[in-house]
Amino acid sequence: MQSNQELFHIALDAASQSYSPYSHFRVGAALLCDDGTVVLGTNVENRSFGLTICAERSAIVSAISSGKKKFHSIAIATPDSNYPVSPCGACRQVLSEFLSPETAVIFGPRLENAVATTIGALLPFDALHELARSDKKA
Ligand code: THU
Q1: CATH for 4-137 (3.40.50.720, 3.40.140.10, 3.40.50.300, 1.10.10.60)
Q2: Which atom of ligand 1 is nearest to the CA of 45?
Q3: What is the pLDDT of residue 136?
Q4: Contact indicator for 41, 53 with CB cutoff of 8 Å
Q5: Residue 130 has what pLDDT?
Q6: Which residue stretches of the chain have pLDDT < 70?
Q7: How much is the pLDDT for 129?
Q8: Where are the domains of the chain?
Q9: 130 is catalytic
Q10: CA–CA separation, 79 and 87 (whole Å)
């Protein structure tokens, strides 16, 4: 299974697939599944700006679409920033739907100044769990 460092380098590679002609801000995500596979995501922008999909959400959507159910960690690389850019609020919410609060998250422009944290730290006081009982899920 990949270390956080290896996962971060995979996220950096994924950023090279970014479709970001409007912001010119590339983001790559590497989501390590409990089965040992890594699912990639990148940001996909749109000329109707509000339709942009972040790298984190594109990784989650891809993983769920391929039947992945449990996740070990996620790395997010933003090679065009000079400081660690953390996941946006929408991505924190979507990640928290599928990743437990203890799940490791590493983000940054480079490994040397990356931040290692957890889903729970990024989204404290998470709510509405009673609506997400596993026996109700499709
Ligand atoms: N973006 C992500 O993909 N993930 C983040 O965590 C922050 C922002 C993307 C959205 C947009 O394409 C670009 O970065 C600038 O906001």
Answers
A1: 3.40.140.10
A2: 12
A3: 61
A4: no
A5: 84
A6: 134-137
A7: 84
A8: 4-137
A9: no
A10: 14
